[in-house]
Amino acid sequence: MFKRRPYDIVRESRYTDCMPADTTALAATVCAYADEASAHTHPFYQLVLPVAGALELEASGRSNLVDALAGASIQPDAHHSFRGVGENSVLVLNLSDDSAGDELAHRFLESASRRVFFVLPPPIWPLLRAAAAQLAGAASSEARRRWAALVALTLAEQGQQIAARRPDRLARALAFIEARAAHPIQVADIARAAELSVSQLHALFVRWLGTTPQEVVATRRLDLAERLLVESELPIADIALRCGFADQTSLGRSLRRRRGITPGAVRRRVTSQPSDATGAAAGTARAYP
């Protein structure tokens, strides 16, 4: 979780004032978060999209700022903590599996469920500001539903367009990483699979993904490791080897450096979550557009 000052109090609640009365409905709401740490869980998907300022958010051992560069997706019943940073305005979309009623939106939700934070494509920003302006007052339930559907579908369409524009060789490189991340691989191996030189591969990743091949490999390995820590009872040393790390120490060092958490803490956080209906539930990797 993000660092709290000594006087911060984390409030645990299943619902907040930012949530509509009917939490099963498709809805968009504009929220302003106080500089006070809070935490809750809810039974629906939620997209958290910045309009102005920033929001500190932590979920599933990952923390980041929701700001002009990044939005966040929260899985149903995923426990998450948050706090506003200065003056802020955030568009929050509550979505169910079938709330958008569109195959493209379903694919977006499936993709979003595998990560917490995602890069916001710049073309979406004017739409977020327009939605916030229309919903800032006493908007009707129908208006909130329509804006939520429009923003969700637009995000899905733009994500699909970005994927379609990726060069074929980048797609080959990403497929190779996906298939081989748990094995010892070098950047030269990825370049060979994509039929590129190492320098060409590096330039391709920086241009289209804003990061390097090494970072993508490291991210994928940590995603695999965290999933096994949560979903299995394998010893941490075995998980490290299964995910391409030399040993348990290497896994622990990478998790601490990149995500600020230890393997043991990932596992304890899940096992310590209350399981009763009124308690907080456990929940969800960085993905590239």
Word description of this protein:
- The protein is an alpha+beta fold and 289 residues long.
- The protein folds into two domains: 11-164, Regulatory protein AraC (Jelly Rolls, Sandwich), CATH 2.60.120.280; 168-271, Homeodomain-like (Arc Repressor Mutant, subunit A, Orthogonal Bundle).
- The chain is 44% helix and 19% strand.
- The protein is built from ten helices and eight strands.
- The protein has helices spanning 103-112, 125-135, 141-165, 168-180, 187-194, 198-209, 213-231, 236-242, 248-259, 263-271; strands spanning 11-13, 27-31, 38-40, 45-59, 62-66, 70-74, 80-95, 117-119.
- Strands 1, 2, 3, 4, 5, 6, 7 and 8 form an eight-stranded mixed sheet that branches.
- Helix 2 packs antiparallel against helix 3 (141-165) and helix 8 crosses helix 9 (248-259).
- Mean pLDDT is 77; it is low at 1-17 and 274-289.
